[in-house]
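Researcher: Good morning. I'm working through a list of sequences from a screen, and I'd like to move beyond sequence-only analysis. For each chain I'm collecting a predicted structure so we can compare shapes side by side. This is the next one on the list. No need for commentary yet; just the structure.
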Amino acid sequence: MYNCGGYESVETIRLLDGIFDIYMPDFKYGNNEAAKKLSAAPDYVETAKTAIKEMHRQAGDLVMDKRGIAQRGLLIRHLILPGGLAGTREVMKFIAKEISKNSYINIMDQYRPCYKAFEHPPMDRRITGEEFEEAVRIAREEGLERLDGFV
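Model: Good morning. Structure tokens for this chain:
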């Protein structure tokens, strides 16, 4: 399993072809403005999209055995951020249209403000239940149904 932040060079991912059965990248941001401000990654969106496309080319959609244990494929994680900063609509639209509507998505609600987050509202607070529910609704609206923890 290759567990990564999603901000990987496509060259690196190509070198890994045939080595990993499962890729588990984060897809943190749907727009470069937030990525630049929060992670100093002005080209995050293009870099993550290219890397995730290559991961999917290599491993395909996530396949699980009868017990629900991942065997092969791509599992994409998306952390919901306060105030819509993660760009969930853009992320889910990309996954549905350019990766696969059968993609397995883990929509994560565990954002916790720490360190300098308190200097950057709305990053100074946890997400609300409504923000999480909206993210799940967006994923479904975009045609994604394989959401971790949801049937």
